[in-house]
Structures are given as structure tokens and as C-alpha cells.
Protein 1
Amino acid sequence: MIEIRPATLADILAYSGNLPFTRARAWVGVEDGKVLGVGGLAYLDNGAVIAFMDIDDTVRKSAKVSICKAARTAIRWAISNGLTEINALKADDVPAAERFLMRLGFLSVGNGVYSLRGG
């Protein structure tokens, strides 16, 4: 069973080998001690909040329910903590990315950018 829990610095480094953002709130999916994916919210210097997700391809195909659960956890956390807008970029190499973003409540604002307004 995949456990969804808040990410630690060690989790992110073990999964991706680097820190893509200087400030983020992230969660990981872990099974048998192995990090299968990481996702959450990155806070950019210009004040924008960007949703991100990086998942092992095998997990993307087999754990759709866990992925949606984790994404909804991040969105609920963001809205309950006062965020009013979250942006996301559609991954061109993931055919279901647009459907996934729209299922979560994001709307296209053009050029592969999606926005979710809450609060």
C-alpha cells in the first residue's frame, strides 16, 4: 500500500537528486520504504504558487487513486492556509495531464498554463 505523507528534505533528494525549488510544501508517496513520487506547492520569488508533481512512470499507471488523493490533499492544505490561486503547467509528455488537472479543478488560461482559484 502506498503511504502519502509530508516530504522531508531527504525524501526529495533521494527521489530527484536535487532541489528544484528553494521553498515548497511537498508530500511523497512511499511504498516499502521507497519514494515513488513527490508533489506539492512551490513558492516562487515573485509570489506565485506553482503546483508540481514528479512520479515514477510505473506508479502513474498503477496508482491513480493515490495520486489523486495526494493532489487533493495538497490543494485542501493550500486553500485552508489562505492561498487564493495555484498555477500548474501541463506536462506535454504525460497524455492524461490535462484531464488530471481539470479533474482537480484547474482551468486552462492558455499556453499550457492552468489555474485554480480557491478561498
Protein 2
Amino acid sequence: MRTHPKAVTVRFSEPEFVWIEAQARAHGEKPAEWVRSRCMEEAGWEGRLLAELRATQQLVAELVRELVVYTSGGNNGAAGEKIRSIFEKAAALRAK
């Protein structure tokens, strides 16, 4: 469930609203959802979110790879240090 605790009200002319309604319907969204999505895209938020998701995916992939090395008995010291490094990198990203 998505919650958005703050709201902004915008007024549109009848022709503008008809166009927005048509665009929203074409994308399977309600008009307010469609307008919000367009605002977020314009502000660049979706790009930032995707970048964060990609970074998280990369960290998880690195972690899994090192855990496999660690649990399979391969160079445990280096793998353990790499695992700690990955967690530190993740903590630094969360702190931003």
C-alpha cells in the first residue's frame, strides 16, 4: 500500500483535465496517479530510485558471490573481509 502523507492541489481547465484523464486512462492510472508520476519523472526522482535499486542489486550480487566463496571453504579470510566491506558500503549508502 502506497501512502503519500502530503498533498498538492492543482486546478486545470476543462480541456486540460479531459486530456489528463485520457492520458491516465491510456496508462491504466487514475488522473492523480498519472500527474504524480509525470511530476516525479520531471523532477528526476524515478531515475534516482532506479539508480539506488541497481546499486542495491549490485551489492546483493557481490555479497552472494562472496558468501558462496566463504561457505565453500575458499579463501575464508579474504571472503570474510570482502563481506564486511560490502556491509560497510551498504551502510554508507543508507547514511546518504
